[in-house]
Hints:
Cofactor: [4Fe-4S] cluster
Number of helices: 14
Membrane topology: Peripheral membrane protein
GO cellular component, one term: lipid droplet
GO biological process, one term: innate immune response
GO molecular function, one term: metal ion binding
Bound molecules: iron/sulfur cluster
Amino acid sequence: MFTTQIVFVKMLLQVCFSSLHRVLAGALEKAFGWMGISDGGGRARRVAHRSTRESHIKADESEAATPKTPTPTSVNYHFTRQCNYKCGFCFHTAKTSFVLPIEEAKRGLRLLKDAGMEKINFSGGEPFLHEKGEFLGKLVQFCKEDLQLPSVSIVSNGSMIREKWFQKYGEYLDILAISCDSFEEDTNKLIGRTQGRKSHLDNLCKVRNWCREYKVAFKINSVINTFNVDEDMREHILQLCPVRWKVFQCLVIEGENAGENALREAERFVISDQQFQDFLDRHSDIACLVPESNQKMRDSYLILDEYMRFLDCTEGRKDPSKSVLDVGVENAIQFSGFDEKMFLKRGGKYTWSKADMRLEW
Ligand code: SF4
């Protein structure tokens, strides 16, 4: 009987102690839990700390994985697709006749300037075709006078330029590049770089002289293809004396000059890397020659189309971003496919302001 009583008292005490412990523990948890002093809080704090640290690591990793937004230092604005020539390898063809209203074009150019643009190149199609060059002239003047861009340039086939244009807008233009693939008139005709009976070479010489007269740096662009790959152009280039002679390897772009919906078929113009190299070797003593193979060319240009959408050529076709005018430069440029490293590697940044060229006019 006595033993049973002892056991009963012992059990009673155990129940009391355990209840007391629970009550005390609950009170302490309530009192200090918010401070994270209790074990539960400590555990929560450690978990929180760990997840913060993990999220930092993840943020660092994603920062490293997210490519840096490229700066639109040098932009090519193809504001029109219309052209009076029919070059067989053309890779910016007349798929639309759209041209932005000039105030919208200016708004987009200002956005680009604010995002870091230093050089603008106007191209097409043929940029002197729309409004007989007035639209182009106004944009050239706007970019130099209002935006104060260090470099404003144009790529043209040269056939639509008049002296009056130089008189009005020449002072605002740094560089004028004229496309010429051959110094044999028949070859230009075979390529399609011609209109009717007009002589492409006469136009080229005329424009070259106006550039000298109106103090615009003169440049030549040539596309090397099956029809001109064996030509020796040294004498003519030395005579014309351009500040730069850009020599491109004929490039195939799906949807522009190849494939079902294309307006051109460039396959018959395509040359091999070796043929391109042979052409370069033949002209290696021309100091101003700047070669551009397909590999260098494809992703190293920031191209804006007539709607001010960046065109991504990484997949061998031109995939458009949304328009800079709708989503801003920073957003649109993410979809440009632009390879900034290749841009620098191919010498995309050069002395591009005529004020810095110290040319003898
Ligand atoms: S000149 Fe020739 S390559 Fe240039 S836009 Fe016109 S058709 Fe195309």
